[in-house]
Amino acid sequence: MLKNIVMALTLAMVILAGSATVFAADAPKPDPxxxxxxxxxxxxxxxxxxPTEVDMDKYKDSEPLATKLADxxxxxxxxxxxxxxxxxxxLVMFMQLGFALAETGFTRAKNAGHTMGMNMMVYGIGMLxxxxxxxxxxMGGSGxxxxxxxxxxxxxxxxxxxxxxxxxxxxxKGFFLGxxxxxxxVLTMFLFQMVFMDTTATIPTGAMAExxxxxxxxxxxxxxxxxxxxxxxxWVWGGGWLSQVGAxxxxxxxxxxxxxxxxxxxxxxxxxxxxxxxxxxRLGKFRADGTANAIPGHHIPMALAGCLILAFGxxxxxxxxxxxxxxxxxxxxxxxxxxASAGGAMSAMMYMWFRYGKPDIxxxxxxxxxxxxxxxxxCAFVTPISSVIIGVISGVLLxxxxxxxxxxLKIDDPxxxxxxxxxxxxxxxxxxGLFADGTYGDKLNGVDGAVKGLFYGDPSQFGAQxxxxxxxxxxxxVVMFIFFKISDxxxxxxxxxxxxxxxxxxxxxxVIGYPxxxxxxxxx
Length: 524
Known about the structure:
Helices cover 60% and strands 2% of the residues.
């Protein structure tokens, strides 16, 4: 008898110790320690397994056993999702090293310190800008994330009404991550969204490398993180108007971009295009007759190592965008990501091999990235076969675009950022509208049914994706072009010719990447 009593008390203590406390409230309140996150409401089919009469008798003075157990399971479910999202965010942050190595390796040794410096400082500058205003503008009216347990305090969106429909333009809550959003779910979302934004911010540093002043770069870092990126991201991911063109106007599920082909990559690529046009080509890039000179990167092994680090971090980028470790679609997302990258690398290599007689490994590295960019939007909605097709097309598209940008448009892009991120970001959005197979995405953006593309019977989704590409290009290019023109009057965009010839390292960031090479012109 005594043994049974001890066991019952022990069980009761374990259950009570593990349960989550729920506080009723008239309106959502911040929860900085996560005490109210995860209840029976977060458990799928939590109504099963009702307690027996014996259980009810034991716990007649407390909540029913089944409810308490469900609360524990619900809390753990949300915890798993939160840990998954944070770890994937850490992987995306690691991509910053990949960008730094790739861009530095693809440029010249005399500018190595400057290029690495931009890639390091855009992380800090972008983060502070996003903390100041960016996160609030992007996610302030999103309503949070159910998979992370709430975040309902993000409940203020600036909306205008046109044609009898609401058009969300930007959030108005969450500036400085103040007390009104001091909440575990919100801060998880901030970290994950911040590292995505920083990927966008770092893309133009490659396109304008080797001639961009550090002062103007710093001004740019705050501008894109505080305003440009957050606005477009709100329209697609923050509950804004592009996400609602499905519910409002019957365009599929509205604009979909699972992990950021347009929100992250096309935004960065289009900004890079605007900046590269305004700043002009590097000295010696084009001959008097307009033909291009090749300016080889100084460290291809470094650049390719950067590409592989990016590919590794991309698993966090894409699979993490489920915001749920319990969403088993993550395996499909991860495999699709791998396959598209392989398709892009292979097709880029083969294209250059057939056209020029030798495989171009640097172009294959960018092809790897092009495949990753292209699959980022459709990765959750397409089959593995479609992923390979999307990747193969992206690799060829990359090569054609790089040659077109350089030889026809006469734009100097040292690392191919415009083609990798801008062109293939657009292709990824269109690919979703073509290849989505109708097995995933029910209720996305408030629309019933799984997501289908044109090839599976829904041309309206393709229409939504085309709209997104057009809006992104027009909005980002116009705003960034105007910004670069104005910012050039504040802090000159371009270094003096003598500094560009000597190298930007000492003049701009007070270090020399390779001091032992400083007098050896063959390494420059």
